[in-house]
Amino acid sequence: MVIDKKISLTALIKAKNQLAYAIKNAKSELEITGAIKCFEYCYELSWKTMKKILESMGLVDINSPRTVFIEAFKNQLIDNLSVWNSFITQRNLTFHTYDEEIALEVFDSLPQFLDHLVKFIEHIQNKQ
Fold first, then answer.
1. Given 66, 91, 116, 123, which residue is catalytic?
2. Is the pTM of this model over 0.85?
3. Choosing from 66, 96, 116, 123, which is the catalytic residue?
4. Which fold has domain 10-127?
């Protein structure tokens, strides 16, 4: 499978770098909140990038993150469907509720998200 070179990863890579920096340097509550916001942004860019790739492959009617992750897994864009589905839950928790305990749980899981994001980006770069 070759992925269309017109699909830019520039914004996703920049957001990934900001997330990595935020995770590494977050100490205060404000910095942790900033890292979580970076996660939300990376999450949105991730599934929307996957959607563009899948659409370029001829798949349509993939309008939700869950559907995109299922199709991305079927088409070997990602290698772990359950972990990407868990990111949906984390994103929803951070977006719809603010609770310090939940925020810290999500923050603690950000390195796992970053690892999977890096794998996704590298996989796409190798296929372009």
1. 91
2. yes
3. 96
4. Four Helix Bundle (Hemerythrin (Met), subunit A) (1.20.120)
What is the pLDDT, as a whole number, of residue 5?
A: 85
pLDDT, position 97: 66
Q: Averaged in consecutive runs of 10 residues, what is the pLDDT profile of the chain (128 residues)?
A: 88 98 96 95 97 94 96 96 96 80 92 98 93
Q: Is 116 a catalytic residue?
A: no
SS (H, E, C) the chain: CCCCCCCCCHHHHHHHHHHHHHHHHCCCHHHHHHHHHHHHHHHHHHHHHHHHHHHHCCCCCCCCHHHHHHHHHHCCCCCCHHHHHHHHHHHHHHHHCCCHHHHHHHHHHHHHHHHHHHHHHHHHHHHC
Terminal Cα-to-Cα distance of the chain (whole angstroms): 9
Clarify whether 66 is annotated catalytic: no
